[in-house]
Amino acid sequence: MKAFRVNFWMILTLIVASIGFLILIYISSFHAAQLATETKTVQPLVVLDAGHGGEDGGAVGRSPVPEKVLNLTIAQKLEKKLTQSGCKVVMTRNSDVMLGDHSLSTLRERKASDIHKRFSILQANPGCTFVSIHQNHFSNGIYSGAQVFYSKNNPQSSVLAEQIRKSIVSQVQHENKRKNKAATSSIYLLAHAKDPAVLVECGFLSNDSEAQLLNNSQYQQKMADAIASGILQYLQSKNEHTASVPNGDLYSSDSSGIISKKAG
After folding, report:
1. Which tens digits make up the pLDDT trace of 216-256?
2. Of 18, 110, 147, 244, which has the fewest CB atoms closer than 10 Å, so is most exposed?
3. 253 lies in some domain
4. Structural domain includes residue 23
């Protein structure tokens, strides 16, 4: 009888220990799955906007191709670089098209519709980092150099702009002395975006030498790489400082902008 009691308690102890071990495995697996889910949800989201498109060619200047083509080419190279670096990228356009309602009677109306469509893409991606790619143009061909415009609605926009500016200067345009500028109402997207938003004018198509560079595939890749580097540095710095702070920003319902080209 005594041996039976000992065996009984030994068996009971083993059963309890096994149950406890299984519970520990379950808890560990649950936390691992939760961590994986959290890691997946914080994948950086970037919305890239290739300016103009379709019947809206943008600036031409000294360039053999219109601005819309250069914008899309650089944006697609930028998209590839950011995707390879772990970002989720949403493009406002990925081909030579004007967005919006094509049935509208005037070009002005169709451009406005295009802008509203671009902004609706922003609204569908809250919490993103927005970067619009354009080329500059001015009546005087002496001006050159990239310049970054930023939204005044979010303090992080100027931080993003500065990271991109420094990256372009260090990697591509070493002599560029241009300063970043706060966007006015003429850049409608930036004037109304609530999340970090910038517009990068990669150079002047009205400048002979810069227009040639902007039509060179290798130079386009260097520009895309520099912009990507600035974006990634910004995202890394932002994550280090705000990883535990929830993002409560929301987009407004207004649209993006028709760009006012000017030197500065």
Report:
1. 999 999 999 999 999 999 999 887 765 544 443 322 222 23
2. 244
3. no
4. no
Range of the domain at 201: 45-242
Q: What is the DSSP string of 119-169?
A: HHHHHTSTT-EEEEEEEE--SSTT----EEEE-SS-HHHHHHHHHHHHHHH
Can you give the pTM of this predicted structure? 0.77
Radius of gyration of the chain (CA): 26
Contact 145, 180 (CB under 8 A): no
Q: What is the CATH number of the domain that holds 65?
A: 3.40.630.40
Angle, CA 127 vertex, CA 70 and CA 31 arms, to 5°: 125
Name the one residue in this structure whose structure tokens are 């083509």.
69
Structural tokens at position 28: 């560990």
